[in-house]
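Changelog-adjacent note: as of this version, every example in the card shows the full chain rather than a window. The one below runs 338 residues end to end.
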Amino acid sequence: MTYVDELANEYKDIMSKYLFDQKQDEALEMCHTFSDKVIQIDTSPEEIVTLHMDLLDDMQVTDGDKIRASLHVVQEVLIAFGFTYRDYKAMLAKIEVHDKELDVASSLQETMLKTSIPVLDGLEIGAISVPASKVSGDYFNIIDHRNNLLSFGVADVIGKGIPAAIAMSMIKFFMDFQGATKNPSEGLKRLNRVVERNVNQNMFITMFYGLYNIETDTLHFSSAGHEPGLIYRLETNEFEEIDAKGIVLGVTDSAEYEQRQVKLHEGDMLIVCTDGVTELRKHDDTFIDLDDIKDMIVDTKEHHPQDIVQYVYESLTRMQHSQKKDDLTLFILKNTAE
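Full-length structure tokens:
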């Protein structure tokens, strides 16, 4: 006997109790359990009505009063379908509202958070940021101060949707209005206070904040719990990991951030990314090996950084698990001064 046959027999038992055994209350109570079972196997209301009619014939119910009475049974069963349909409609309404919110957030990011990549003597820059869905939790910003100083930030918001877009706007406006400074640690300290006071307490931001002096080839940098950066040394064909102590933005308004500095020689590159790169899931559900990414960069080291980031992105896309995507941002700064 199949599960469908068992359900048909269960419904017949309900009908018998209600019409012939004078156990209407028990029968109606059984209807609730029966409804749950048939809904779970995606039975339609039309199929329940058909089953009801077939059972009336099978049980040889011809009396008009009993036929009318049996309608109470089918009505009780279909009430649950009504609840389910209303829940379904309510869910669709919420999804529609959510989609509209995501469209607003996406539009906000496109119009307010655009960052142009400057063309500078002695320095080449490449950057790419691709969201996993409509709205990205990643962000990068580049500011040319036109006095041989370039500041930049790569950030990752732990959160999505409109709140994430607003948080990103806060970072952009803060960097735009802060102006040139030789103190990224102080910049993060000030930004942290803004985030802690104005962003949802469950939303945090990691950020790598750098200031590059084109005249001295010196990078000053601080980090708010962000992925460590990498320095590719052309002379030795090796990578150095760079990091600075500091917790994510928004945890406490008294956070302090370490500042460090490093020099880039001709042909050296700074690589900063988000965890969408370093923690990418491959088709076999394993994490990518950082050495694979380093190899991609070495293979394209002679190219412009924008071509490098594009090549790395396309390579990662081919390797990435289609169901486990994350926002991905990659920033490369290359010293081309002779």
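Structural remarks: The first helix runs from residue 3 to 19.
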